[in-house]
Write a structure and sequence with these properties.
- Pathway: Sphingolipid metabolism; Lipid metabolism; sphingolipid metabolism.
- The chain folds into two domains: 5-347, Endonuclease/exonuclease/phosphatase (Deoxyribonuclease I, Chain A), CATH 3.60.10.10; 352-452.
- It contains ten helices and 14 strands.
- The chain has helices at 23-35, 50-60, 108-111, 145-167, 185-194, 199-203, 217-224, 243-247, 350-391, 401-452; strands at residues 5-15, 41-47, 66-69, 80-83, 87-94, 114-122, 126-134, 171-177, 197-198, 211-212, 254-259, 272-281, 298-306, 333-334.
- It is α+β, with helices and mostly antiparallel strands.
- Helix 4 links the parallel strand 7 (126-134) and strand 8.
- The longest helix is centred in the C-terminal third of the chain and has 52 residues, at 401-452.
- The strands form three sheets. It has a six-stranded mixed beta sheet with strand order 3-4-2-1-13-12. The protein has a six-stranded mixed beta sheet with strand order 5-6-7-8-11-9.
Length: 453
């Protein structure tokens, strides 16, 4: 155990009660595996049963005595953080958009997707803010713009929180299931606006290359950091994948980001957080069974804390520690640049903001159209209820009465539901999109004005 290194794990546990397969067995196996690990911080997603969290917490309590289980939405956020370092603060920020309440099967609205965070007191870094999140799932990276918009709003809100944490002098680690591929717009937004660095890319420069051929499932995990929809996972083996996922033998959806503080506290020396190594873990089957720990693999990152000479804060581009370039697999070729240089600090460009605004505007228009359609259904239900109410005065008592009652109950339920989703939720979605659109327009205008000087 050393105070100059931090080991972080993030794992989507797939723990929905009554739905997730072998949930109890898998949660016990995860707890047993974590009990013998040496992680300093663990972020878990999809732990929706508090009893499962208690099992995991009890198993790791000797090494990780501090923990926080977060509540949000109707079914809970499914987010939990365990830490070796004292937790001195915790908060959860539900995302303003998480799908629609009428989309029951998707369930994102009911679980209340959010950005949870704990503030820990680290003996060397001082204040370290750890974010744990699970972004909106539907839509993918190539789905309709109105579906991608909700995840973009999630990414924007998380990026603002991470940036604010750094601006008050805190180190930041953000981990979780981002439901986005590395080159997608939400990932660019998070990294550019919050200046967050992708720990996997920092230690695996070749992971950004596109394979000329299809890698083996093992190489896909080892080189590209695939954590979901891998043929190696018992719950996704044989699953039909989209073209990009087939090319990479799965998807990289789980990330660990990090950054230095923007305004570090005054001190003689300011520590620098560097990533040493990252690995995809929990890839094997649970011992004694034929199924995996979860439908996602886990991701771990090892960070080193170093001290620059003097008291000046080192440039963020100097926090990169190149890892040895891993040899390509024999059945495909990587297009790489020898000895890649550290990437310069990224900034959200006006063009990227414009692209984001296009998606948000498409969602805004779709939301207005959907709200009008749902209110039309409400009006039709009310009209039919009036017809039944008036017509019942001329209907004789007969065996059709129970059917009439059932139809009346159904129409009343439908009217109430579509009034809520069309008016209350519809207004909420439109107003939330309006707020984010205006924020991004102001930010873009300020960037353009600055560039014009």
């Amino acid at each position: 155990m050393t105070e100059n290194r931090i080991r972080v794990l993030t794992l989507n546990c797939w723990g929905l009660k009554y739905v997730s397969k072998f949930r109890s067995e898998r949660m016990s196996a995860i707890a047993h595996a974590l009990a013998s690990s040496d992680y300093d911080v663990i972020t878990l997603q999809e732990v929706w049963v508090f009893g499962d969290f208690e099992i995991i917490r009890a198993a790791v309590s000797n090494r990780l005595p501090y923990s926080k289980f977060f509540y949000s939405g109707a079914l809970g956020a499914g987010l939990a953080v365990l830490s070796r370092f004292p937790i001195i603060g915790a908060t959860i920020n539900p995302y303003s958009l998480n799908g629609s309440p009428i989309e029951v099967v998707q369930g994102d609205w009911f679980v209340g997707k959010a950005a949870a965070s704990v503030l820990v007191a680290h003996p060397v870094l001082g204040q370290l803010q750890v974010f744990n999140t699970h972004l909106f799932a539907p839509g993918g990276d190539s789905g309709p713009l109105h579906l991608q918009a909700h995840r973009l709003v999630n990414a924007w809100e998380l990026a603002k929180l991470a940036r604010q944490a750094a601006e008050v002098g805190r180190y930041v680690i953000a981990a979780g299931d981002f439901n986005s591929s590395p080159a997608s717009l939400p990932m660019n937004l998070i990294q550019d606006h919050a200046s967050l660095r992708d720990a996997w890319v920092e230690s695996h420069p070749n992971s950004l290359a596109v394979p000329n051929g299809i890698p083996s499932p093992l190489d896909a995990v080892r080189i590209f950091g695939i954590t979901a929809d891998s043929p190696l996972n018992s719950f996704s083996a044989g699953k039909r994948l989209e073209a990009m996922a087939r090319k990479f033998q799965g998807k990289r959806l789980d990330y660990i980001f990090f950054r230095q503080p923007s305004s570090p506290p005054a001190s003689v020396k300011t520590p620098i957080l560097k990533v040493l190594d990252t690995r995809v873990v929990f890839t094997e089957r649970i011992p004694g069974s034929d199924f995996s720990y979860s439908d996602h693999f886990g991701l771990e990152a090892t960070f080193e804390i170093s001290h620059p000479e003097g008291g000046d804060l080192a440039d963020s581009s100097e926090t990169h520690v190149p890892a040895p370039v891993e040899p390509p697999a024999p059945n495909f070729v990587l297009a790489t640049v020898p000895n890649p240089a550290p990437a310069p600090p990224r900034k959200l460009s006006p063009d990227s903001i414009t692209e984001i605004l296009q998606s948000l505007t498409a969602c805004y228009r779709y939301s207005q159209y959907r709200a009008r359609s749902q209110l039309t259904v409400f009006a039709v239900c009310i009209l039919l209820l009036l017809v039944i109410l008036i017509g019942s005065a001329w209907l004789p008592v007969s065996s059709f009465n129970p059917l009439i009652i059932l139809i009346t109950i159904f129409l009343a339920w439908a009217a109430t539901t579509f009034l809520y989703v069309g008016f209350v939720y519809g207004k909420w979605e439109v107003n939330s999109l309006t707020n984010v659109i205006e924020e991004l327009e102001i930010y873009r205008d300020s960037l353009l004005e600055h560039q014009g000087r």
